Fold each of these.
Amino acid sequence: MEDNIIAKSNEQPTHRINGAIKAETLRLVGDNIEENNLVLSRRDALKMADEMGLDLVEISPDAKPPVCKIIDYQKFLYQMKKRLKEQKAKTQKSQVKEIRFGPQTDDHDFEFKYNHAVKFLSDGDKVRAYVFFRGRQILFKEQGEELLMKFASRLEEYGKLDQKPILEGKKMTILISPVKKK
């Protein structure tokens, strides 16, 4: 057992351990204590941890009195790292996939891009569909808007329209988010 001032790790928050704990009274929790939520003096808690050959780790310094746990500090860090890794794995990473149309896109091309959008939305990604106008094609704004609205209405069972068609320069864009699966 070491008397570390404040133990630090690259990814974990800092924890006071052993002699670095400043509070005079502490609440002890954990598996290796007979009575859970036991309130002791710092000296008694350190003595108890020393007898067990483990570290006294301050878990919640803001609580009144601060909550500590008697545990091997390396094991504690390992458990925290493992818990953070599990939480990170559970979070869904969403990407925005882009699909480009021209104002006079054929039916076959439309179906091909529709199938790609269905795959993207079922994978949990957002889809940004846009019509790009080149040169004088900007005269066909209505055709581009109709195309995007047709695309959005076809994708209603897979995603919902977040943003109606917006013309930004030479691009008319919509954004479609995936529908939550039940």
Amino acid sequence: MEFENYKIYGRCAVLRKGGKKMLVTVDVGPRIIFYGYDGGENIFFEDLNDTINRDSAFIKENLKDKGIWHIYGGHRLWKSPEYEDTYYPDNSPVRIVETDDKTDFISEDESTTGLRKILSVQMHDDGNATVTHTLINVSDTVSDELAVWTLSVMDKGAKAYIPLPEEDTGLLPNRNLVLWSYTDLKDDRFTLENNYIEVEQKNRPSAFKIGVFTNKELSVSIKNMLFKMSRETKEGRYSDYSCNVECYTCDKMLEIETLSPVKALSPGSSIVHEVKWSLDKI
């Protein structure tokens, strides 16, 4: 595997195919910190000035030697529901396991959640990718119900397009819209139409977030590129009032997020969520 030092992130694994390039942090994280055309711009946000971080009483009490949590940027793997232990400071080196068709980037075991995170990347000949996200219960007790939560942190100027279900369900509802306490439906970053939602990143000091359930492909336009994400919608119960897609934005970035169904994990068991990425110039 090829490595390079990238900006503030230290050593990163380099994946190249089909004229596209991906960088994955290995000194911290893991994060897919760069994805774009080789020699071109990054579609992801890079928090080079550490403007988004989190310290808390929980971290101080339980994780004194781990530092604080940093967003770093890029694409990350988390667990849902979002509690204080979701913000486990992933500041330690990442273990790498290569096979013929993919590379696994493995976090340290989390003492507070009992989880191990594995971010697996398979880059295809056209430069598109399959990103597989795995949470493993490495503790000796059954976990609370949890879900895989994937967050792609897009750079400024991103616009997310989220198609909504269109099935005719007769007398029953066929779509949902979930709001957070700080969500303002009059926000001009948010467009709601009958069959889709758009969220656009703008220089607004306030945060905005919505969630939905949809089995359709997601897309984000950014820097004259179109980033698409597709995944299988599995049967099961979903967190956050039945969301499998969420979108958050603030003055620095836009996050397009996907979630698996929730599941309690017995010791040694895992939950897996696969997302297919494509990137094209527009």
Amino acid sequence: MTESVPGRDVATRIEDLIATIEAARAVPLSASCVIHRGDVLEALDALRLDLPVELRDAREVLIAREAVIADGRLAAEQLILHAREEATRMVEETEIVVMASERADQLIAGADEEAGLIKSEAESYVDGRLATLEVILTKTMDAIARGRSRLAGEKESDVLAEPQPQ
């Protein structure tokens, strides 16, 4: 039997016990074997002393693992929450941009229509004013021509027969 050596892990000690039992001398015509009781009890006592340490270490590893998993879950949930908030914000911004773009298009179309009406009205007004000015200028030109003719001693009937200078 292998002596209890500090620092050997529990699994190795159990393997040693199994090897001891497998190597034990068999009792003829039976499934029993002969094992030195002192060696087995000594190995079991060493295991009993080491098991609490091993179990405590294993529990600490499990607790640490659970803490890491919990932290990971919390971080993942926060990340998902943040991603959802960001996606919602982006969708809202996109909807706002679309609505603003549609509103801008409506305003531009309305402004274009109103500008066309104003331009048409302005052109009509200017055309009317120019027509009035043309009539006034034509009458003024005729009056000037008649006045010059009188100064030149011509008759009004002669002026109408001559072509007008331009």
Amino acid sequence: MLKGQFVLPVWLDYTAAFLFAITGGLVAFEKDYDLTGLAAMALAVGLGGGIIRDGIFLQQIPAAVEDWRYLAAVLAAVVITLTLGNFIEKRLGLVILLADAMGLGLYAVVGAQKSIFLGLSVYAAGLIGLVNAVGGGLLRDVLSREDPIVFRPGQLYGVVAIVGVTVFLALGVGFRTPAWVAAVVCIAVTFVLRVVTIRFDIHTHPVHAHAVRGAVVSGYRGLAGRLRDKDKPEETPETEPEEPPGP
């Protein structure tokens, strides 16, 4: 019964592949890649998350290999990038972020849904949904020689994907909400959270800058200093020699 409830239209997967392919193509456009480089980047980013999901975690033939419409979605993204690249160049960063935010929720939903449909646990579905969501962006950053956005300090990314996939599984599994309703809510929540973090610059900090770590280090140094002081022998104050009495 649970499996039947978690059936989502396959066009969600096509849409996610298309959006991530757009982000890959726009990054290639920004870096002045040639046509081959742009197409390869769009292909890797658009289909990479799904291939990781199906080939590694679900032990299946990747859907992108069996269904030509995935490749058609990537080709459409390449054509749009080539056609509108100059028009959106001034807003390139914003367009990439918005497309990535929408694709993040879509791939989180698709990855979790496929896992539940195959009878995997909720924990496994959440993990695969998360990997599916961030996999394309990870490949995009690695191939463009950038530090992956999911690793470096900045606006929340992986956390947003975790929240989205949790919402989807909580609604679909916990409350038995129809799969398409849970999917729409997850995609909306993920997109809104991602946009809010960008708009208000809600970001993470480097590990060495965290207050908790600073307090621990300061406490450790203070304790070490006190122990060193305790082990030192007490020094008797030196007395100045008395001056001889005057004549």
